[in-house]
């Protein structure tokens, strides 16, 4: 899709009116970091959107054991791609297989395209381009009650939180 921008409208943050609870928790999304030469993507169903330091932001959570972690660490930008309806198989595959061992892009049928600051996919219906502005690691003391720690972190591999300023939002026409 050489002219991918022809199929997307760039919208301002104040015009974005999707239900983010549904978007993140039910529809899921792809986190992609890297360059056109080398990138990785993973599925996420945790995250947050809002305003921080007077900037529109997206918070993502990536475990250090994930291959995408390396790309998120090495690059200043990442994209959040919300796929068109009917792509749960792609999202499931990208959330359960590692890019270290398999070519998830080929296996899933995703068609990557470059944005101004990252990589998204032809199958996306909404794309957030984000610039990292802060990160920190979750701390065990954060988890109350202990059942949450035991359920989500039996190996104590706590997520790193990345806060990214939303630079651009694109919605498929």
Give an overview of the whole structure.
- The protein is α+β, with helices and mostly antiparallel strands and 173 residues long.
- It has a single domain (4-172), classed as Electron Transport, Fmn-binding Protein, Chain A (Pnp Oxidase, Chain A), CATH 2.30.110.10.
- 21% of the residues lie in helices and 40% in strands.
- It contains five helices and ten strands, in the order βαββββαβααβββαβ.
- The protein has helices at 20-27, 67-74, 88-96, 104-108, 146-152; strands at residues 8-11, 29-34, 39-44, 48-52, 55-62, 77-83, 112-114, 119-121, 124-137, 160-172.
- Strands 1, 2, 3, 4, 5, 6, 9 and 10 form an eight-stranded antiparallel β-sheet that branches.
- Strand 2 and strand 3 form a beta hairpin.
**Percent strand:** 35-45%
Describe the sheet with the most strands: 8 strands, antiparallel
Counted by DSSP, the helix tally is 5
Query: Any idea what the shape is?
Result: globular
Q: What's the gyration radius in Å?
A: 16 Å
Helix content: 10-25%
Low-confidence stretches: none
Can you tell me the CATH class?
Answer: Mainly Beta
Between the first and last Cα atoms, what is the distance in angstroms?
Answer: 14 Å
Query: What is the string of SSEs from the N terminus onward?
Result: EHEEEEHEHHEEEHE
- Count of individual beta strands: 10
Q: Please tell me the CATH architecture by its name.
A: Roll
Domain module tally: 1
The whole-number mean of residue pLDDT values reads: 91
Secondary-structure-based class equals: alpha+beta
In CATH, the homologous superfamily goes by the name Electron Transport, Fmn-binding Protein, Chain A
CATH fold naming: Pnp Oxidase, Chain A
């Amino acid at each position: 899709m050489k002219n991918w921008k022809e199929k997307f409208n760039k919208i301002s943050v104040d015009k974005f009116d999707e239900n983010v609870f549904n978007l993140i928790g039910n529809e899921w999304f792809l986190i992609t970091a890297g360059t056109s030469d080398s990138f990785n993507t993973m599925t996420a169903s945790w995250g947050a959107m809002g305003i921080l330091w007077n900037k529109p932001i997206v918070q993502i959570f990536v475990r250090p054991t994930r291959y995408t972690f390396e790309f998120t660490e090495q690059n200043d930008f990442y994209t959040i791609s919300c796929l068109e309806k009917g792509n749960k198989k792609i999202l499931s595959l990208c959330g359960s297989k590692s890019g270290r061992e398999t070519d998830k892009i080929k296996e899933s049928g995703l068609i990557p395209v470059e944005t101004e600051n990252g990589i998204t996919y032809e199958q996306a219906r909404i794309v957030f381009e984000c610039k990292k502005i802060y990160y920190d690691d979750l701390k065990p003391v954060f988890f109350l009650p202990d059942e949450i720690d035991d359920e989500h972190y039996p190996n104590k591999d706590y997520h790193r939180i990345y806060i990214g300023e939303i630079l651009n939002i694109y919605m498929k026409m």
